[in-house]
Design a protein that fits this description.
56% helix, 0% strand
Length: 209
């Protein structure tokens, strides 16, 4: 006679097996999720514990940021300052014009003044040549006049220190001197200008000319 206890256990159907498998998988998933959750909860606490045990480190970018301005300042300080422009050289005061020479109002002064004018105009002649001819022609008298020679007879007597006639004085008059034939300096310079054109220089004259 078959045992009823054994017959009471029956093989589960396919649907019931699938249901049991799904339920088991759900239990495993819940357990795994709980384990992950527990693991996740513990990671931040461990990181926090490790961070508390490490010494605080200065930010890596702090030093370069602070060093850059210091380096720039040091570079600027190393650049030499521009040299100041040199002070302009003092402008020398213009030299005062030399005082005009003072000539004595005598034969020596008249000859010296005449020579200065002749040198400026390029007229040759020397002190000795002029002095020698003046003494021969007028004895040094600026008002001397010849009233007896051929020039006097023609109405143009010789006048002054070097006995010059009026037409010769007018032709050989030197600019800058007086137009008065009796002026000692004008008379000497005009006579020397005439002698330079005719004889080369008053120095070459030794008689009536």
């Amino acid at each position: 006679m078959p045992d009823r206890r054994i017959s009471s256990f029956r093989r589960p159907s396919l649907r019931e097996g699938i249901t049991i498998a799904v339920a088991a998988a759900g239990v495993v998933a819940v357990a795994a999720s709980s384990a992950v959750s527990v693991a996740d909860d513990s990671v931040p606490s461990r990181i926090a514990m490790v961070a508390e045990q490490q010494p605080a480190a200065a930010p890596a970018t702090a030093a370069p940021a602070a060093a850059a301005p210091v380096a720039e300042v040091a570079a600027l300080e190393a650049i030499p300052a521009p040299m100041p422009a040199p002070a302009p050289a003092p402008v020398p005061a213009p030299m005062p014009a030399p005082a005009p020479p003072v000539y004595e109002n005598n034969l020596d002064g008249w000859i010296r003044q005449s020579l200065d004018i002749m040198n400026a105009k390029g007229i040759p002649g020397s002190y000795n040549g002029i002095h020698r001819n003046v003494l021969r022609e007028s004895s040094g008298n600026p008002q001397a006049i010849n009233l007896w020679d051929s020039n006097a007879a023609a109405g143009i007597p010789s006048k002054g220190l070097l006995q010059v006639i009026d037409p010769t004085f007018a032709m050989y008059h030197v600019e800058g001197t007086s137009w008065d034939i009796w002026d000692p300096v004008a008379n000497i310079v005009a006579a020397c200008n005439y002698a330079a054109h005719r004889y080369g220089s008053m120095d070459n004259v030794s008689s009536a000319y």
